[in-house]
Design a protein that fits this description.
The protein is an alpha+beta fold. It has 2 helices and 4 strands. It has a two-stranded parallel sheet.
Amino acid sequence: MNVPYFSGIMIHPGNTSKDTEGCILVGTPSYSKNGLPISGVVMNSRTTFNAIMENLEGKNVMITIKEPQEWENKKLTEALKLLIDALANQ
């Protein structure tokens, strides 16, 4: 992926940028008390991670990271479902 100082990008549980040094964190959206999504925070990361890994078991997959504007009209949970479905069907 040509990410500086990284020879591989991993997917693992975590909730904020403090839990990663460039890897992909997966989870469900976190919302404020007024119902707005909190940017940069995901919840249920371990459950989501385990579901993805179960779907990927024994499969060779490639993940394409798209620019944020390509996803701007989708809810995070819909985007995550699309990712899981795409990985499971490869």
